[in-house]
Amino acid sequence: MASPFEDTYPNIDRWVNEHEGWIEIGYDVDSPLNSFLRALDAGGMSWEGLDSYPSLDAAFQDLDDALTEILRDLYGE
Known about the structure:
The protein is an alpha+beta fold. The chain has one domain (4-70). It is built from 3 helices and 3 strands. A 3-stranded antiparallel sheet has the order 1-2-3. The two termini are 23 Å apart.
């Protein structure tokens, strides 16, 4: 049975559990990156979000939408 997170953000779930990628949330003051949310995998940075979002839900939705295209490009689905 899928969790509410998996139901709401299926592409984030697939990115982490099937593709073995990961996401980073938050700011690193010592980094040149300004994005609040990032998706990475063994090849490096795959996606960077905006500098800020009105909510965590908005950030996750932006990432989930972006991962739709990234996963389609990777797996041809």
